[in-house]
Amino acid sequence: MRDACGLLLCFILRGAERVFSIGIFYRLLKPCAFARAAFNTVLKNPRPAAPLPDCFRAETTIRAARQWRMNNYLNHIIESFPERLAGDKWKGRCRIEGISRLRQARQAGRPVILAFCHFGPYYLLRPWLRAAGFPVSFLVEGKAGNRSALKRLEDRFALFPEIPTAFHLDELRKTAEFLAAGNPLLIAIDDESGKQMDVPFCNGWTFEMATGAVRLAIRHRAELIPCAIVDEGGWHFRIELGRPVPAEFLMTEAGWICAGKHLLDEMRPHFQARPEQRTADLIRRLKQNPSTAAP
Questions:
Q1: Domain that holds residue 263
Q2: Which residue in 269, 262, 14, 286 sits closest to 120, CA to CA?
Q3: What is the CATH number of the domain that holds 179?
Q4: Which portions of the chain are predicted below pLDDT 70?
Q5: pLDDT tens digits for 93-103?
Q6: What is the pLDDT of residue 43?
Q7: Structure pTM?
Q8: Which of 90, 151, 243, 277 is the most buried (most CB within 10 A)?
Q9: Strands 112-116, 223-231: parallel, antiparallel or unpaired by DSSP?
Q10: How far, in Å, CA of 34 to CA of 186, rounded?
Q11: What is the predicted pLDDT for the residue at 52?
Q12: Is the separation of the CB atoms in 163 and 181 below 8 Å?
């Protein structure tokens, strides 16, 4: 029943997007998203926040949290019509900083690993990068056969339909072929699956990082580029492609920590500037060093 409702809603949203301008469409949906956000932010009794590092600027107001939650509900709606993002109607709604780094690697036929964290509307990285002309895919956990009916429907609407939108952990051979063809792959570094390593984050804190992005970059001689997306409100976004990890950090296992630290150093300014856009998945990866923990 839930899948059927989701499929029906997807078709309704796709039809509404065709009829209304972006501004009117947004204003029509906003009251429902606001009410849902207010309920989940205020009426539900959240647990006290876990301690976080000072450099993470953990303090956020209830109003900011409610605003981000509302934006998150609205942003998920865009997943219903990913192919429309390349049209004139949505043009200019997402700025991509550092896109020349991705373009140069693509022109050279070199594979690219785009390392990201569960921060901001990360689920929109793929549709916006595809709208910019790059056949990006996600590497996700789980099995391909367990992909929901709604996700499979949304996959049918994606740009570059001949290229899978996601590769699962039981499709590593296909993933390797995808990279060998010089394509860009999005991989989360704050995922709980697979091998992990502790990377310095800021004073007294470490970040438990999944090593998959680093290991794949080494194995396939790929560019390893930090990637983050920021919600600027009102269906406006900014994607930041940071400086690639230096090649010397991707030679041997001894350089993994340095590679991880480079990725975090590139992403941390976005975490600090938009603390309300962090997610529970990201926060869970932060660990306080025992020697600096308060008594």
A1: 2-292
A2: 269
A3: 3.40.1130
A4: 1-3, 42-50, 57-60, 290-295
A5: 999 999 999 99
A6: 63
A7: 0.91
A8: 277
A9: parallel
A10: 30
A11: 79
A12: no
